[in-house]
Amino acid sequence: MKTEFISSILPNAAVDSLFVVDEVTLRNSSNKKSYISCTVSDRTGRLPCKIWGDAGMNESDIEGYYNTLSQSQGDIFRIAGRAALYKGELGINVNDGIVYLGKPADSSKLSDSDFINSPVDIAACKKQILALIESIGDEDLRTLVSSAVTKADGFFEKPAAKGRHHGYFGGLCEHSLEVAKTALSIEESLSDVRLNRDLLIAGALLHDIGKCQSFEKKGLSYAALPEYSLLGHTATGMMYLSRYRTFTDAETFRELLHIVQSHHGEHGETLPQTPEAWAVHFADNISAKLHEVDEDLKSVKPGESVRGWRSDSFVYRSPLTQSDAAYGTGNTGAKGTTPPAKGNKESGNDRDGKKSQRSITDSFR
Ligand SMILES: [Fe+2]
Ligand SMILES: [Fe+2]
After folding, report:
1. Domain boundary among 68, 101, 134
2. Which residue of 9, 171, 228, 297 pairs with 214 in a disulfide if CB–CB is 3.0 to 4.6 A?
3. Looking at the CA of 234, which ligand is closest?
């Protein structure tokens, strides 16, 4: 039975527990020594983990462990090392504990629920999304959205990204719901601006539908498919939605596709040209950016600021808003993900690396 959880790990503490391992990459340190970078997770959060091996190991030893781990992504391994803060981010370093990484742990007596990382109440989220779809007045559009959402592969289970924001089970449905609710609050607040509520809900819920074609389940985690980087989720979303062309009239369908196509705003190929497309674009950024800032602040002491890798900006923890989850209570990596490799945008989190150059908040492209 698992007793040690990520939410209770403090800086400098010894760690020896079972975690799901994924996002495994082989990297080189500044002194040209190979090490393994990965993410470890359980139901309470995710942390970056660096596996250095012990002093007597050579390059081929490290590569051997890398091959095992990379072929077993999503499996449970025993991680024995020490927690440390690096640039304000909590992580785990493994040295001698590498000997436990030759094969996955025996999971026959373990409960999957201890290892699946998700802060989302997926059932509640799904209920709200289905209620929003029901509220679409245009019957044809309502049927289209309902079919597109319920028939997509894993809309209610898959993450919205591997890093930065909503990178956990249920992240895509949580993010889509947040975008829809935020877009509707824009509509309510700007009463003089003419916005089509039906298109707003449809576009918000479907703007990232392409992410369903971007992940596959691997063990107790999700791994990115080649579509993740080869095509990007806007293109896969447009391809997926094309099957629904006959569900509604040509003008409504064109405007729905425009919302999806332009939701990255000035960082995408197509700028929004309708009020609904702009509203979804802004709502998307609000949902993504505020989650990124919130996550970046998890390991920051009150009164200090750090450069957050998720938000790609400086974040400041106000002493006025310190919560139980603040630094010092151990909850320093509740939804954390592995930061991109410095100076190596083609390894590991390359998608996140590209994103940091763009400053757009929607990381998964
Ligand atoms: Fe997106
Ligand atoms: Fe999004």
Report:
1. 101
2. 228
3. 1
